[in-house]
């Protein structure tokens, strides 16, 4: 396994890892329920499903399986409601915001690799004032995570060798993609991990419960003597 050596570049999953997007996605999910005359779901219930995408939120909201009649129409409604305001309440997790400020001040490369479509990811990133050196979205390549190709493309755009990158994610597919790409796979516990899913059981190289712990580890890696 890769150890906590100094990363030359940081790559982040978007939803639940770098940015807390659940409030805006919960708003859209409950808008779908309201459209069908249903009461809103509790926020924690929706939050746990955010990393699984729009289809999972439709299933949660209406009980419609992906192949069920009406699912696609409901997903279109949900995504339209979300697209109207992708960054009303979404925020970068505070420790990571501080980390990025320090990282950028040192002119270090970083990027985002997400399974979110670009039509939502790009305006979200812009609204939050983020300036990643690489932004790879679900529809940029023929494949998406857990395939390693988007991560490898992000490293290429940053001009950094994959093995010199840390990739951080809050879902098993993130860890699988990072391992397949030869990057340090970093599992985070502050994101949208489903109930009963132990992120520490994922085949990562590093695990962090909090953003503060991650920042501390990176600072230690930065100050550790080179062998």
Keywords:
single chain; 227 residues; alpha/beta; six-stranded parallel beta sheet
Indicate the topology.
Elements: E1 9-12, E2 19-20, H1 22-35, H2 43-47, H3 54-62, H4 71-83, E3 91-92, H5 94-105, E4 110-113, H6 118-127, E5 134-136, H7 149-158, E6 165-169, H8 172-181, E7 184-188, E8 206-208, H9 211-223
Parallel strand pairs: 1-4, 1-6, 4-5, 6-7, 7-8
Antiparallel strand pairs: 2-3
Helix pairs in contact: 1-3, 1-4, 3-4
What would a concise description of this structure say?
The chain is of the alpha/beta class and 227 residues long. Helix content is 42%, strand content 12%.
Average pLDDT works out at 94
| Range of strand content | 5-15%
Helix content: 40-55%
Please count the helical segments: 9
Number of strands: 8
Oligomeric status: single chain
Rounded to the nearest angstrom, the radius of gyration is 18 Å
Can you tell me the residue ranges where pLDDT is under 50 for at least 5 consecutive residues? none
| Spatial order of the strands forming the largest sheet | 5-4-1-6-7-8
Structural class: alpha/beta
State the shape. Answer: globular
Spell the H/E element sequence: EEHHHHEHEHEHEHEEH
Q: What's the story with the biggest beta sheet? A: 6 strands, parallel
Give the N-to-C terminal Cα separation: 18 Å
């Amino acid at each position: 396994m890769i150890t906590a050596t100094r990363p030359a570049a940081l790559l982040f999953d978007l939803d639940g890892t770098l940015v807390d997007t659940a409030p805006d996605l919960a708003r859209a999910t409950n808008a779908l329920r309201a459209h069908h005359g249903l009461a809103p779901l509790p926020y924690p219930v929706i939050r746990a499903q955010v990393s699984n995408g729009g289809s999972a939120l439709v299933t949660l909201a209406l009980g419609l399986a992906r192949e069920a009649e009406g699912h696609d129409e409901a997903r279109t409604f949900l995504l339209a409601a979300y697209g109207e305001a992708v960054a009303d309440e979404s925020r970068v997790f505070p420790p990571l915001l501080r980390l990025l400020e320090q990282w950028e001040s040192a002119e270090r490369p970083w990027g985002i690799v997400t399974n979110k479509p670009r039509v939502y990811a790009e305006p979200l990133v812009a609204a939050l004032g983020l300036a990643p050196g690489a932004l790879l979205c679900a529809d940029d390549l023929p494949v998406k995570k857990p395939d390693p190709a988007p991560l490898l493309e992000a490293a290429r755009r940053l001009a950094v060798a994959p093995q010199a990158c840390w990739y951080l994610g809050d879902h098993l597919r993130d860890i699988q993609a990072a391992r397949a790409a030869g990057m340090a796979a970093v599992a985070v516990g502050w994101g949208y991990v489903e109930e009963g899913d132990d992120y520490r059981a994922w085949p990562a190289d590093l695990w962090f419960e909090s953003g503060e712990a991650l920042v501390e580890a990176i600072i230690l890696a930065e100050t550790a003597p080179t062998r």
